[in-house]
Amino acid sequence: MPQEEEKNNQNKKVIKKEGRVTEALPNAFFKVVLDDGNEIMGFLSGKMRMNRISILPGDKILVEMTPYDDKKGRIVYRLK
Questions:
Q1: Statement: the pTM of the whole predicted model exceeds 0.90
Q2: In this predicted model, what pLDDT tens digit does every residue of 33-59 receive, in sequence order?
Q3: Domain 13-78 class?
């Protein structure tokens, strides 16, 4: 059983970073400045859309990014 968990963790290559929303764009897209200073384009995850979690400029968020594209990320959590 632990081998499946390790295999799933190896296949899921995501980088989680914290950032702050600077601008709201149409279609649930946002301009986000990460804590390391990079500016990316973030979009809401499906669960956040379904649960109607609102994101406003100035909110701190958690972003999942793939190692292949460092200019886009999926917003998965709004921090307090």
A1: no
A2: 999 999 999 999 999 999 999 999 999
A3: mainly beta
Burial 40-72 (b: 16+ CB within 10 A, else e): bebbbbeebeeeeeebeeebebebbbeeeeeee
Alpha carbon distance 60, 15 (integer Å): 17
| SS3 label, residue 28 | coil
Measured distance CA(70)–CA(2) in Å, rounded: 31
Which two structure tokens, joined as six digits, stand for 22? 């600077």
Helix spans in the chain (H): 2-11, 46-50
